[in-house]
């Protein structure tokens, strides 16, 4: 019988926000894959662990080797269906049984922290990609949510929105990082002020027009 590949969303990172069935699968795992931070937070003694460093071909080879004798649990930040490793792993292991347990995305968590709804928001990612220009245009009353990275942090995105897509500098915005952790940081300001904000490399930017 083929072993199972389990993809578990660990939400914003704090174990308090992981669904109980996800915690159960993690605790039962013999083989655990995740970022160094995730492994530090979730791994237990006796588990064989593999830290994800970005070299996906090496990761896939290692997982394939482990699946010959054990189930493999892969921890992904946020939700499994929102910019996670799930599409890559499905493509690499199409013949293995797959269990996917969702988590809370950092985007929805950010909106919750701000006390805002996201049902009509346009959610995008600047993390390793650039959204199409037509998705970034200014429209009064429009709400945007962005995942960010080191190159396109909230300051860079704010400048792009103002300089290239007509967003007023007075637009309300919020930059959110380390969500759910004790050192969580949320900066609420205008888009003009966010354009001068340092840091917040891997974070969430919410813009409310």
Automatic annotation (TrEMBL):
<dbReference type="InterPro" id="IPR035996">
    <property type="entry name" value="4pyrrol_Methylase_sf"/>
</dbReference>
<keyword id="KW-0489">Methyltransferase</keyword>
<dbReference type="InterPro" id="IPR000878">
    <property type="entry name" value="4pyrrol_Mease"/>
</dbReference>
<dbReference type="InterPro" id="IPR012818">
    <property type="entry name" value="CbiE"/>
</dbReference>
<keyword id="KW-0808">Transferase</keyword>
<dbReference type="InterPro" id="IPR050714">
    <property type="entry name" value="Cobalamin_biosynth_MTase"/>
</dbReference>
<dbReference type="Pfam" id="PF00590">
    <property type="entry name" value="TP_methylase"/>
</dbReference>
<comment type="pathway">
    <text>Cofactor biosynthesis; adenosylcobalamin biosynthesis.</text>
</comment>
<protein>
    <submittedName>
        <fullName>Precorrin-6y C5,15-methyltransferase (Decarboxylating) subunit CbiE</fullName>
    </submittedName>
</protein>
<feature type="domain" description="Tetrapyrrole methylase">
    <location>
        <begin position="5"/>
        <end position="194"/>
    </location>
</feature>
<dbReference type="InterPro" id="IPR014776">
    <property type="entry name" value="4pyrrole_Mease_sub2"/>
</dbReference>
<keyword id="KW-0949">S-adenosyl-L-methionine</keyword>
<keyword id="KW-0169">Cobalamin biosynthesis</keyword>
<dbReference type="InterPro" id="IPR014777">
    <property type="entry name" value="4pyrrole_Mease_sub1"/>
</dbReference>
């Amino acid at each position: 019988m083929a072993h199972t590949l389990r993809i578990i969303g660990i939400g914003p990172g704090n174990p308090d926000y992981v669904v109980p069935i996800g915690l159960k699968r993690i605790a039962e795992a013999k083989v655990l894959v995740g970022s160094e931070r995730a492994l530090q937070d979730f791994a237990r003694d006796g588990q064989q662990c593999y830290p994800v460093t970005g070299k996906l071909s090496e990761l896939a080879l290692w997982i394939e080797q482990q699946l010959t004798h054990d189930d493999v649990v892969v921890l992904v930040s946020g939700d499994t269906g929102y910019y996670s490793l799930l599409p890559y792993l499905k493509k690499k292991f199409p013949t293995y049984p797959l269990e996917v347990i969702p988590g809370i995305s950092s985007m929805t968590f950010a909106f919750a922290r701000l006390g805002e709804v996201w049902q009509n928001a346009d959610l995008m990612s600047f993390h390793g990609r650039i959204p199409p220009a037509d998705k970034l245009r200014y429209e009064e009353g429009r709400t945007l949510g962005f995942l960010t990275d080191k190159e396109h942090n909230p300051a860079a995105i704010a400048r792009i929105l103002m300089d290239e897509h007509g967003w007023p500098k007075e637009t309300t915005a919020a930059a959110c990082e380390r969500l759910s952790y004790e050192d969580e940081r949320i900066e609420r300001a205008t888009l003009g002020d966010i354009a001068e904000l340092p840091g917040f490399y891997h974070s969430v930017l919410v813009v409310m027009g």
